[in-house]
Amino acid sequence: MARRALISVSDKTGLGPFVKGLVDLEFEILSTGGTAKFLRDQGVKVIDVAEYTGFPEMMDGRVKTLHPRIHGGILGRPDLAEDAASMKEHGILPFELIVVNLYPFEQTVAKPNVKYEEAVEQIDIGGPSMVRSAAKNHAYVGIVTRADQYDEVLAALRAGQLSLQQRRRLMQAAFEMTARYDAAIAAHFLKEVQGSAAAAPPASAGLPQQLDLKFERRQELRYGENPHQKAAWYVEPSFGPTTVSAAQQVHGKELSYNNLLDLDAAVSIVREFKEPAATVIKHNNPCGCGIGATLAEAFDKAYEGDPISAFGSIIGLNRVVDAATVEQLCAPNRFIEAIIAPGFEPEAITALTTRPKWKNSVRLLELPQLMSAQAVSWEYRRIAGGLLVQERDELPEDETTWKVVTQRQPSEHERRDLAFAWKVCKHVKSNAILLAKAGMVVGVGAGQMSRVDSSWIAAHKAGSRSKGAVAASDAFFPFRDGVDQASQAGVTALIQPGGSVRDEEVIAACNELGLAMIFTGRRHFKH
Ligand SMILES: NC(=O)c1ncn([C@@H]2O[C@H](COP(=O)(O)O)[C@@H](O)[C@H]2O)c1NC=O
User: Which CATH class is domain 216-366?
Assistant: First the structure.
């Protein structure tokens, strides 16, 4: 019986030598338009699918291989009398090998500003149909879906034929591929659907009854949080362009597990600001953050917020790094582990990678789309025996809904600092109290079990800079003690969600102390 292979691939890597190998084994080759042309250019004799089916490829390639003569040839079981009779009656020829890879949906949607229609056209229909048909009929057919399978398949065919064991393994790999492909499509359009329904998506929108997550290993990590913990970094098939997964490391040592956590936190914070902004992350909390007229100014404010904690930190910047910022980054007594920014000017890269103190240590990551808009995404956290899923705390803040609840209105500069402090406070582990002054974080109390302790730590960190600062609290003050603490330190205005049964007592304390206070109506716990 003639040996026959159907080849239809978007990614033609390694295809020429593989198909020439099949031809040497006297395989007849059938192919779709672009693949047939590619193979003919390589000197391979090919039969067009359109010639075999008697139908031209049509509708911009939406219909090419969707024909009973193709699927009958893949799904037919020639040694079953009934199948053999149908094949004979309809002139259906059996295939021994199907070689398919799909339209590059993931690569297409990873491009910035990809159009909805372009994404839709990249949904491959005929390819997965053939893959599924061949995988189902693996008792008779080998299904090849990856270029790195070519060598093994060719070697087996040269030795005779693919064993059942090999065909089973190829079948399993094929279903993994189509599952991942469909997951990427679903994930992309989930974002589209949520984005267009951004007016009021219910909290549970898009949360399926059953969750099938696919992540691909990007790299093994030296270790996890501690050297005795094994670890690896996995990425989503359709990670967004604003995420650390989309960043390019342009210099420095291998990233660590803790680096990645801190880089993620750094990106989330600087994305909050339209103006030049910088943040300094230690142990997943911002110990500094600053905004300014220039990136250099913003970074200086961020680092000086808590220079002791900032030693050995991860830096997030929301503008391309220029020479002036490099001078600040490399100032004496400053030491940084990693920097993530939308880009680095060539002179900035040279300066950062040639200075003796820096060249072997600092990791530089470019994330060109760091400031692009992105729909609210899901956050997954493991608990033993389960997984918690929630929307990331990314809904834009609407300042027009904020209420001044005290007799005194905040002054203009207090209001600016309150808005700034509120944006950063959201990224601090609860209980979070954050003091800020003139676009600079001056004290952070993070991760304490009582709010009054966080207030004390924030004031202690700020030292004399707490005079005239403002305070943000990620959740309501349960008692007036946190307010008293802040006032004693010299804080003049506060921002918090409100909602405590003792709100009246807390407001009265502010009025008594001459403080201004805003209720935002939205809590930002971060556990
Ligand atoms: N519509 C069809 O019948 C169809 N059949 C095969 N394809 C895909 O077309 C691609 C190959 O096309 P070409 O050989 O024209 O470059 C492959 O990725 C294959 O998965 C199709 N395209 C989309 O669904």
Answer: alpha beta
**Residue that the structure tokens 């600062």 belong to:** 469
In whole angstroms, how far apart are CA 328 and each of 303, 315, 363, 365? 9, 12, 17, 18
Half-sphere exposure of 497 (CA within 13 A, CB side): 16
Q: Which span out of 196-210, 229-243, 375-389, 460-474 was modeled with the highest average pLDDT?
A: 460-474
Task: Pick the residue whose CA is nearest to atom 15 on ligand 1.
Answer: 34
Nearest-CA residue for ligand 1 atom 22 is: 126
| 88 is annotated as an active-site residue | no
The CATH superfamily holding the domain 3-188 is Methylglyoxal synthase-like domain (3.40.50.1380)
Hey, which of 103, 123, 131, 133 would you mutate to test ligand 1's pocket, going by the most ligand atoms within 8 Å of its Cβ? 103
Cβ of 55 closer than 6 Å to ligand 1, yes or no, is: no
**What per-residue confidence (pLDDT) applies to 34?**
96
Supply angle C-alpha 241, 247, 251, rounded to 5: 165
Phi, psi at residue 400, to the nearest 5°?
-70, -15
353: tokens are 């990678």
Q: Thinking of the domain 401-519, which architecture would CATH place it in?
A: 3-Layer(aba) Sandwich (3.40)
Averaged pLDDT for residues 250-279: 96
